[in-house]
Design goal:
Elements: E1 3-5, E2 12-14, H1 21-30, E3 38-42, E4 47-54, E5 58-66, E6 72-78, H2 83-96, E7 100-105, H3 116-133, E8 140-146, H4 147-154, E9 159-163, E10 180-186, H5 194-202, E11 206-208, H6 217-236
Parallel strand pairs: 1-3, 6-7, 6-10, 7-8, 9-10, 9-11
Antiparallel strand pairs: 2-5, 3-4, 4-5
Helix pairs in contact: 2-3, 2-6
């Protein structure tokens, strides 16, 4: 079933004006949605709705379900690769359930997508990933900040890791009644500088190895995020007897 993004999601009747211009064009012009066709709608804030296309390019929303937010929230901090690779990375972040994406300004970084148009394009790719995965939670997107400032924010989280060929995951003990915010930090193609690594280690951010080989930014970002989400989720969920 096709899934569409609608920030103004509610029960009842929706018109094309309740969707973004691009989303309305995609649904009614490109895909030529037919009368009675069943679709899914998400709003990026946890709502998932079942709906169908009605007359005069309107949508009849039948039920809206509020999905509980995950107990494990993965926050990705990444030195952005260049445009097309970053676009793909963002889509995959939404598909695997990353909670937020913060772009990092590092010593060896090569891409700095600061323009408003670039940020809008990136948000659209996050929405595309959510629609693909039927993920009702749109990852928060934050513009580039210096890594020193990012470390200050990361040090307040429940656990934090940065990519390193020498690291390993430390033992974790989680309470099933608590929510956890986990940070995964990925550097540029040239890696973090020695000074940046020293700053992270001093802030109790753990080095984490994903294998013996050096990965591209987008590979390390998604692989590490997925690994940590699964690891903490398995540790957090009580074993059923």
């Amino acid at each position: 079933m096709r899934c569409f993004y609608c920030e103004n999601l509610r029960e009842g009747e929706l018109s094309g004006s309740d969707f973004s211009k691009n989303e309305s064009l995609h649904l009614f012009k490109v895909l030529r949605g037919k009368l009675g066709e069943k679709i899914l709608l998400i709003d990026g804030k946890g709502s998932l709705a079942s709906a169908e296309i009605a007359e005069s390019n309107t949508i009849k929303v039948k039920t809206v379900t509020q999905i509980p937010s995950p107990s494990i929230k993965l926050h990705l901090f990444v030195a952005p690769p260049r445009k097309q690779k970053l676009d793909q990375l963002l889509k995959q972040c939404s598909e695997i359930g990353v909670w937020s994406v913060t772009l990092l300004d590092t010593e060896r970084g090569v891409s700095h997508p600061e323009k408003e148009s670039a940020l809008l394009r990136m948000k659209n790719h996050l929405q595309e990933g959510c629609k693909q995965a039927h993920n009702p939670f749109l990852p928060q997107l934050y513009a580039s900040i210096p890594i020193k400032r990012a470390i200050e924010n990361i040090s307040k989280m429940d656990a934090a890791y940065f990519g390193s060929t020498k690291g390993k995951t430390s033992e974790i003990n989680l309470s099933p009644d608590k929510e956890y915010n986990i940070a995964w930090i990925v550097g540029p193609e040239g890696g973090f500088s020695d000074q940046e690594e020293e700053l992270m280690l001093a802030a109790n951010i753990n080095p984490l190895s994903l294998g013996s080989w050096i990965m591209r930014i987008e590979t390390a970002a998604i692989t590490g995020s997925h690994h940590l989400i699964n690891l903490f989720t398995m540790q957090h969920t009580p074993t059923k007897k």
